[in-house]
Inverse folding.
């Protein structure tokens, strides 16, 4: 290998210890080496060389040869050595999957019983991490069967990242294809964001969304099937995350939110006004 340090660093990222990586590069370069020779070339303490080489033999990275009264170590062909490591990790992963399945089987009944005991008392989940907010929103969209109503205003969990926005759009477009009604009220954005907002809204409308815009929205909120409410509150006292999202499972709150939505919907404008901002908008 032309760059030992780089090779050692990459092996460590693969999960191989630094000592194993140093020993492997040495025996790969010099062929058969004794423990003393490995120590001299790698500076790994001699007492550690025996421990490391035995572990490497078990992992399929090297073989031990007895030459007279001496033991020497030789690297296993690299493709086979690293495949042995991958196989080891895959076996460990399979074992963990089986353990996880066993834990799920044991934990689900306990969880379901605890839900019964707390039914009617736990309605609210609080989420502050932007990635978790994004995943929660996409998950709720995907399980919607009838209708989604949305009050859309900054700040955005996507932070204008195209990949996140694409994922949210894809989830919406899939449920639209299944006949879900999607109605969205957008707060008219700052002038420098008119174009990006119009592009997104127009794309959603072409997929089947019903959209209108309004000067000011009192809250950022989403209601799914008149059952789940995703309510965003701006964090004015922290810079770690611009949002705190409340997930509320409460049909009465969902109904109240829909009444507010319908009232604002009647006073909103066609989204096309974003293309003619120099004209006074006409109510739809």
């Amino acid at each position: 290998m032309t760059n030992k340090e780089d090779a050692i660093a990459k092996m460590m990222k693969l999960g191989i210890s630094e000592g194993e990586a140093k020993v492997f590069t040495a025996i790969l370069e010099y062929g058969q080496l004794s423990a003393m020779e490995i120590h001299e070339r790698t500076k790994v303490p001699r007492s550690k060389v025996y421990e490391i080489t035995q572990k490497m033999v078990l992992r399929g990275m090297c073989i031990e040869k007895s030459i007279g009264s001496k033991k020497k170590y030789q690297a296993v062909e690299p493709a086979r050595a690293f495949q042995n490591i991958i196989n080891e990790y895959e076996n460990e992963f399979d074992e963990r999957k089986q353990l996880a399945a066993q834990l799920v089987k044991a934990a689900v009944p306990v969880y379901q019983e605890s839900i019964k005991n707390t039914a009617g008392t736990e309605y609210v989940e609080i989420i502050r991490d932007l990635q978790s907010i994004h995943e929660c929103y996409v998950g709720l969209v995907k399980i919607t069967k009838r209708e989604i109503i949305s009050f859309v205003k900054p700040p955005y969990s996507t932070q204008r990242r195209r990949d996140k926005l694409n994922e949210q759009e894809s989830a919406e477009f899939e449920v639209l294809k299944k006949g879900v009604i999607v109605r969205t009220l957008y707060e008219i954005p700052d002038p420098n964001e008119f174009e990006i907002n119009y592009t997104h809204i127009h794309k959603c409308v072409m997929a089947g969304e019903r959209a209108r815009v309004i000067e000011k929205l009192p809250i950022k909120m989403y209601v799914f099937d008149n059952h789940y409410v995703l309510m965003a509150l701006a964090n004015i006292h922290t810079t770690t995350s611009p949002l705190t999202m409340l997930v509320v499972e409460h049909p009465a709150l969902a109904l109240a939110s829909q009444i507010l939505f319908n009232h604002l919907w009647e006073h909103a404008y066609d989204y096309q006004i974003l293309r003619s901002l120099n004209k006074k908008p006409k109510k739809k």
